[in-house]
Amino acid sequence: MIGNFLDQFWSLTFGGLSLGFIYILIALGYTMVYGVLRMINFANSEIFMVGTFATIIVIRDLFKFTQASEPATGLRLWLVLATALIFSMLVSGALSMLVEIVAYRRLRRMNSGVLAPLISAIGVSMVLAESVRILTDSRPVASPRAMEKKFIGQFFDAGIRIDNTIIVTSALILFAVLITFVNRTRMGKAIRAVSMNPNAARLMGINIDGVVSATFLVGGLMTGAAGFFYTLKYENTASNIGFELGIAAFTAAILGGIGNIKGAFYGGLALGLLETYASFFLGTQWKAVTVFVVLVLVLYTRPNGLFGEALTQTRA
Amino acid sequence: MNERQQMKRQRLISVAAVIALAAGSAVAIAPASNAAPKTITLAFQGPLTGEEASVGQDELAGMKYAIKLFNAKNKGKYNIKVVEADDQGDPAQSAKVAPGIASNKKIIGLVGAAYSGATIAALPYYKQTLLPMISPSATRVSITDPAAQGGAMGVPVFHRIPPTDKVQGPSLFKLATNGVPSPKVFVVDDQSAYGVGLVDYMKPSIPAGQSAGFDSVSDKTTDWSATISKIKTAGANVVIYTGYFPQAAPFFKQLRDSGYKGILAGGDGVLSPTFVTLAPASVLEGVRLTAGTVPLAEISAKLEADFKKKMGKSSGVYAAEAIDATNVFLSCVTKGASTREAMLKCVKAYKGKSLTGATIKFDAFGDVAGGGMNGFEVKGGVITFTGPVK
Fold it and tell me: What ipTM was predicted for this assembly?
């Protein structure tokens, strides 16, 4: 088994990494909102699901790819990919802002406590999932192949596939942009201020509603990008896809320390790799069990997650 | 085809249940206004709405087609009514519609249920009221297996046209390895009763040295890389998936994309027109599938053309079985059966020919003895019939 594992190590690692980066982007959606509002935005999983459909709409309906058509190449390929990425990010970002305005804003203004927004979040999540389920007739929906999945290199025994490479590189860039935004811009500073002390921030003249909207927008943009990468990698989605991925990304956020951007990064990576290795060693049926055993062990020793104690410094 | 349990659709289902029951009682109340033709009421049970709706709708069309032919032959002598019960292929839903069908004494025969899980959930009601059933597609072995827990639970009311997964398991292995010089077979199931069962029935037929391994993967899986790594490590050249098409398509796609060049195969759970829409045609080219059913067009092109003309749509999967099942009841109607007791007795004693010319005669447990499986292959994005698996 160990020998087999070493043979497959790099190909498992690459698969785990690209899955991990998808988790990271979704986890950012949870963690940004939690950092600012101390609230779990359960609707984030559905915002991801809508993002996957947005990608399919671009590839299938805008660029008219079918299961029988030739994959795009050259400039057209990059045009298709860029359009799909931007469209998914915008759709998810806008939806995320809308969800905040419709489902959370009034509750927050009325100081409704923590439970009402929680139920509201679950409600929004169900409304979105069920609406898409009815629209798609409960069927899984496939994305036609826009990009040929060719191997572009070799690393030891493992082939490096183009889609995984695109996912890892673009997600890294997005992550770097996000860090810069939070740490270097005025709005980023305002987000951090509200996160640390909303009352003090309000007294300093910061528009809380604006900051919250911006946070949901940024979280939604990241989650939408995850929807695009997911569709690029797996080429399939369904109305119930959000639940599974949402739970995984939420776990990643907790594992890394929720409310912490770096935590989402390492948590997502750790989870992606852990799931892939565990499935190989113990069988896919033990994947979820392994993940949660590890999560519990981590929380035993570090109750705030891997990066929990840095909460007040780097919290988004 | 077996059951699919979709928890999320419960709410819509209840609405459908009410409609189905209302339809049922409407038929029950309607008097036989015309004294001359003899009114006979049959029922159909299967998924008519929801994710699996196409399966039920195709079978129902088969049943109605058989009745059309019957009416044309027996001009004005009979008035055959069909009560439609929508179970969405879901056991929970089946348990809701079954009492209404069972207590509607006008119904003397039921074509269905389409799915095994739904059949099992409905059986207590139909057994209590001795409603004869003939299923075109419920293939789970335990329903008619005296060795199963609780004995053959379908006796005495349950009968079925297609062969069971006990036949499908070995046939699927045979078809998948057909023409492969030194097969190394890796089998993946979806952890469902259907998928695990199919593997269990397949195992005894795998010759020594031809197994490359097994994996059991939840139907919620989206990333198959761990399973794919196992397949590559094992050096398999034949991969069989025993589950349903929504998972089979992404699995096969990821496997092909990883560079796997060997054979891909699956059972009747994968045999769905939707399957080929879920992955690029080039990826699914050559996928081998088994099922107990035969497409009408393969029996004769004339039959398919006539079906299309009369029903306004092409025949679907299990159309032939639905027609066969209906014909058994109709033949009993001409022999004078007009009560459930008479119908059950007649079905038990029935001996006749199927559309393909095979003999239909039910054994003591409700199975047709000697049924075989058929092979299919995906060619150019279309599932095509390749003949019986021998």
Answer: 0.81
